[in-house]
Structures are given as structure tokens and as C-alpha cells.
Amino acid sequence: MRHTVHHGRARRYLALATPLLCGFLALPGMVLAEAAPGAQASEADADGRRFPPSYITTADGRNVHPEDWTDPRLCGQCHTEQYQGWNGSMHSNAFKDPVFQALWAIAEKADPNNRNHCGGCHTPIGTATQTVEFDPDAGLHGAFSAPPVAEMGVSCDVCHTISGTNLQKTAVLEHGNTSIVMDPGNVKRANLPNATSPYHETADSEHHGESDFCGNCHNIFHPGNNFPIERTYDEWKYSVYAQNDIHCQDCHMMPVEVANRVADEMKPPEALNESSIEGFAGLGGPWRKVVHKHGFVGGNAVITAAMNNELADSDNPVDLGRGSNYDEAIKRLQSVASLKLYVTQEDGQLHRAKVKVTNDRAGHHLPTSLTEIRQVWLEVVVTDDQGRELMRNGSLDAQNELPKDTVIFNSHAVDKDGKHTHYPWEIVRFSTRNTIPPKGYKYGKYWFNVPEDAQSVTVNAKLHYRSFAQGLADELLGEGAVTVPSVQMVELEETYPVTELAAAKQALDGEQAAAPAPQADTTAATTAVADAAH
Amino acid sequence: MTNSFADHLQTLGRRGALLLGIALLSAPALTAADDDGFVWNRAMLDIIESGDVERGRQIAEDKRCSKCHGDLGIPEDDETPSIAGQVAAYQFKQLVDYKAKVRDARSMYKVARRLELQDFADLAAYFATLEPEPPEGKTAPPLLVTQGDTDRLLLPCNVCHGEQGEGMGLQVPALSGQKIDHFIETMVAYRDGERANDDFGRMRFIASQLSEEEITTLAAYYAAAPVPGDE
User: Fold this and answer.
1) What is the DSSP annotation of A260-285?
2) Residue B16 is nearest to which of A74, A81, A198, comparing CB atoms?
3) Distance CA B121, CA B51 (A)
């Protein structure tokens, strides 16, 4: 038996009739149709899923309704600081994000099963209640709607009523594709020992303090071919962060300054004695040594900013109070990576610059998530002492696009025919993957000729980030709808006397074994010699 | 309603950012916090906890607090706040806010400006030990007290202020036995934005959702009996 069908709005009236209907349809030799979009499945499919291809289940398999979840604005009456952090976060925008809506609409038209696959994480309430509606004629590609509490995305009560994980039910036996057990009700769960509330029951849940919790959504594999498309949780799981018991929450629910210390010292926030993270978890509650922020800030400053601008004049309360997450995202991007330069003379006038990009502070790859869409790239410009530009690479063109030969840290996704695609549901593999693992590094390499009369060369390297390319924005939002902004993450510039580059080359050619070990890359001479020794 | 809450949230955003910013910058700098208004942080909590009841009684006597607030923190009129049995940390915050002019009251500023944080802690500790006036208690709790109104995003009053209006934790003041006119004036001041020293604008939002009649009903439930003949 596959799914039974209830229309969301007629849910209560159909509840009694459903078993009879199912019994009638499930005659020998008959196969029930796939769950129609907008319908609530009341029984599980062959894999035990009620809302396939997502792995959402509800506690005791009960039917749930939007009103079972608390409006986050009510939560905010007592947990105000947490509410404000969440409001304007990507979690709060998970459903409304116009880029997501456009991609989801295209996905829906390609295969209606994508509604639950994408919606599972972007509107867990809408998916578990099957109340998401799709208007194929709205906007450029179509638009989804849902009851208000479901449109609030990943809201307070979504996470704090999750009672378990379904990782053992997934096709890859790992967290992902919304492998959550939803249990809306009066019991609110958090990793907060000895919590009490006069308004709701509380339960201490270690799960809420672990990466495993986040991995239920931040780990996405293709529902058909099981290819791991978004591997944020996996990337963490096999990193030094996991080995040191540093979880997602320890960085993404902390101020950037504290997150940086966590990454640098490999200690959880509790061990840092940081007074800035003390506070009240709720009104009237005790003072706690660690109170988690709820902005869940990552690198997606683009959508955060876009949503801010779009909704600045809105009179919808849930759309307001959104300023700080953008700044936090910028700070996080600008503190996550570092650059080092190595310049060598290769042959005569031919020189090479190597730019080392290190992922210093992300507990997952850089970039992560939709790596076939995200763009982290190097822009490198080499000039000489007479102001001549000897080489330029990675500068955005007049169309806000990157040149073909840009060194980009991302993935190149292909479909079943081996053709490039940026539609997640079409991906069968990555033909290349050039993301930077936690604490790992990768190089960009550049060659250039130095004129004979040049006395020195200056290498300027910048690392940039943007959430998606201009072409994709044009496709999803409409031509010219937005100019995709970039964030300069880090910049390094060094000047190298040409004679020293040549001397270093001669030293290497003459006595490789005697070349000194690298000490620092702050001078041209040491850099050149050190690199030559490699 | 929606616009009010929108304004509220915008205010929350600015105020929250301000509070957080101050908290991050001023944790070790108590004198700065003294001048800028109250900030919840570990250092401030340590001072509050160090409040000395006997010293507070002496300061109250020296500063003649009884002239307005009565001999035992219960004034003889209905406009002056009753401070007997008030939550110490809340009381401390009010004194800091008076000194910083975050809470506007000329008479209290004149008193508070010459006192230090430790004096505030001692005073708060002393008044917290005094017995509050019993509430009039003639009526059953209004529904707003026990059930709130989620359509207006109002939690029940007793969720935060306690089953008996005794206050809760460090932040939430006791309401039980408060002077009736002061109760009403406070709610109106919150509603009109004339008082704005509530954390995150919580009370400003709540008051903005209440009608005059509801405010009066709540006051009648929580407050002490009116002083006979007091206007």
C-alpha cells in the first residue's frame, strides 16, 4: 500500500472516512496512487514514511495540525532574545526565501514528490500537516503558500518539540532528508538542564545540543539515487571538530567572537569562561553560564539582506526585527578563512604565485550545503613597481559573472547525461569537488611574466563569497531583479623584489638540500625560498 | 494590533541590540553601567546578591524613603508605588534606571543620583524583606490573569508574575498589593511609551494590547484596597 489521501482543508471531515476509502481502493491487484500534493497521508508507505520522500514522522504516528504548534511570537514573550535572534534568520526565512521558493517551484513542476522533499526541512509543519498549497501561475515559476505558522519556517516550536530522529530509517542510515520525529504539544525540549516553566512542560534533551540534531536537515541526499548533495553534517562528522566534541551549536549559536575562540582553541563554549554568553534562557528563569543565540548565522548574508530590504515596510510582525543577522553573517565570513602567498621564479621571466586558502574556522567544508551553487573564489591581481598589471584572475565582469578560469571552491554537478546542472533534484554526481575541508587548505596557482625592467611585483589576493551566481539569480528571480552581492572574506597583499625571487630560484637550483625551512611568509625572500623548498 | 506589535518588535530590535551591546562592552565597568542604565550581567548580579539588609534599612532611614513610601515601604496614598516585598533585583534595576534617567521620575532621580550601586543593592535587599500589603482580592482572577489572550499574543499574567502576583525570578516584579493608582498609571505609561525601561519592551507591548477597562480590572485584582478618601 502506498499513501492514503486526505485533503488538508477537509482533514477533519475525511478522518473518519479515510479507513473506508483506503479499504475500498486497496483491492487485490490495485495500487494506490502517489499522495497528491496538498493531501495529508494518514498511513505510511512501504518504507514507513507518511510524507515521502522526507523522513518526517510524528510521535505515535498521529495526525497533526498547524494549530498544534505555538506561534513563535508567543514564545518570544518570555524568550525574547531568542525570538529576536531567530526572527530574520535563515531558519525564519526557510519557507519565504524567494530563491528557495523559485527553485522549489521548478522542482515541483519537474516532479511533485519534490514538494515533500524540499518542504520537509523548509516547512516541517506544512509538510507534516500536508497543508502546503502550490499556485503554478503565481510569479515567475509558481509560488507556495501554507498556514501562517507553517510559513514561519523552522520556528521555535518546530525544533523544541522534536522528540527523536529517524536516521535508522533513511536510505543511507544517516541523519538527513528531515529525519525527525515531530511531537507538537506542551512539552518543550532543549538541552537545558533543570529547566522549568510556568507556561509549558520542559524536557532536557541532549539531542538538541548535538550536531546530530542539525544533521536531520543539514544533510541532504538525492531521494532517488541517494547521491549526497548537501553534506554539511557528514563534513563535520569526519572533522577534527567532531573529534573534539565541538558541535554545530557551539559555533552557530554563539556570537562570532566566541565561535572563533571555539574553532581556534577547540573547546566548547562552556569551557571558555566567556561572560558574554551568560544570560537568561527565559523570563524569570535562573542566570545561566551559557545561553545560546538563535540566529544560527552562517554565510548566507545575501538572502538575509534581501529579505530585510523586501520586508522593511511590512506590517507583518514576523517579518520585522531583522538587522543583526546580516552583520553577523558578514563577520563570520570575514573570519573563517586565511590566505598565504608563495611566489617563485619558474623559468626566466615566468613566475608563479600560489595562494593558499585555509579553512580556519568552519567545522564543515568551505563552502558547504549547496556547493554546486555557492561560490567561494579567489581574485588575484599581480602588478609591478611601474604599475603595470601582469596578471588578473577572478574579477567579476560587467555582467556580474566570473571568468571561466576563476579558481572557485565549489562542486560541479552533473545530471544523468553528464551535463552540468544546478538543480539539486537532477544531480547524479559531482564531476569535480573543490571545497575546503575543516582546518584544511587548497591552493590557487597563477603564472605570469615579469618584465625585464621590473624591480618588484606585488600580488594582491582576495577571497570572495556569494550565495549564488548572477545567472542563477536571473533565472530564478527574473532578469535584473537583483544584483547578487559578494562579500570579500579576506585580502592579502605582498610585494616581492624581483632580484630576491631570482636569488631564491638560484639557491634552489644550486643547493636544494640547504634551503632553509620556511619561517614566515611576511617577506618576499622567505616566501620564495620556502616555496621553492617544497 | 499588528502595527503595534510591529513597532514593538522594531523597538525590541534596537533596544535588544543596545542592551546586548552594552552587556558586551560594560561587564567589568560597573560605574559605566551605573551611568548608562541597567544591564544584566554577572558583575551586576554579584552586587545585587551582596545587598545588606541592615545597611539598606539605615540608608532608607538616612534618605527618608518613608516620607513617600511609608514607614514599611507601603505609602499612605494610592499613587506612590508600594515597594514592600518587591523583588530585590527588579528594585535594584529601577534604582539604577532612575539614576541613569532611563526611568523618568524627578523625585527618584534626585535621590538616586547621590547613591552608588552598592547602596541600591542594600536598599533593594531591605525593602524585599518587608511584608507587602495584601491585595484587595475581592474578585476572582480575570481571564487575562489565568488564560491570557493568545489572539493578541498575550500570555496569562500569572505565567510571569506568579500565581499570587508575587513576582518571579530576578526580573519580574511582584504586583500583589501594589497601589491601585500607581498600577494603572504604570500600565498607561507603558502603553503610551512614557515608561520604557522594560527589558525588550515586553510590558510596552502588553500594555498596548489592553483596553482601559482591562487595565482597571487587572489593577483591581492585583492592587491593595484603595486608601479611603484618597483621590
Assistant:
1) HHHHHHT--GGGTT-GGG-EESSTT-
2) A81
3) 4
What stretch of H or E contains B152? none
Q: Helix B53-62 crosses helix B117-128 at what angle (to 10 degrees)?
A: 100
Distance (Å, whole) CA B175 – CA B159: 13
Query: Strand A187-190 to strand A287-288: parallel, antiparallel, or no bridges (unpaired)?
Result: unpaired
Asked if B29 reaches chain A (Cβ–Cβ under 8 Å), the answer is no
C-alpha cell at A125: 509543519
Terminal alpha carbon distance of chain B: 33
Using CA atoms, how far apart are residues A258 and B144, in angstroms rounded to an integer?
41
Angle at A283 between CA A278 and CA A285, to 5 degrees: 65
List of domains in chain A: 44-302 (no CATH), 335-533 (2.60.40.2360)
Contact by Cβ (8 Å): B171, B92: no
A228 Cβ contact list (under 8 Å, min separation 6): A172, A219, A220, A221, A222, A234
Say which residues have a Cβ less than 8 Å from residue A506's Cβ, sequence separation at least 6.
none
CA distances from B113 to B89, B119, B198 (A): 19, 11, 20
pLDDT at A512: 55
| Minimum CA–CA partner of A280 in chain B | B40
Q: Which residues pair with A144 in a beta bridge?
A: A134
| Residues of chain A falling short of pLDDT 70 | 1-43, 46-47, 301-302, 304-324, 510-534
Label residue A295 exposed, middle or buried (CB < 10 Å: 0-12, 13-18, 19+): buried
Q: Taking chain A, what is the end-to-end CA distance rounded to the nearest angstrom? A: 63
Q: Does B151 touch chain A (CB under 8 A)?
A: no
Cell numbers given for B86: 518587591
The answer to whether B159 contacts chain A (CB < 8 Å) is yes
Distance separating alpha carbons of residues A233 and A219, to the nearest angstrom: 5
Report all structural domains of chain B as residue ranges with CATH numbers, in order of start.
Answer: 29-128 (1.10.760.10)
* Upstream peptide bond of A53 is cis (omega within 30 degrees of 0): yes
pLDDT at A36: 43
Beta-carbon separation of A81 and B23 below 8 A: no
Q: What is the pLDDT of residues A337-371, one digit of tens each?
A: 999 999 999 999 999 999 999 999 999 999 999 99
- HSE-up of A436 (CA within 13 Å, CB side)? 27
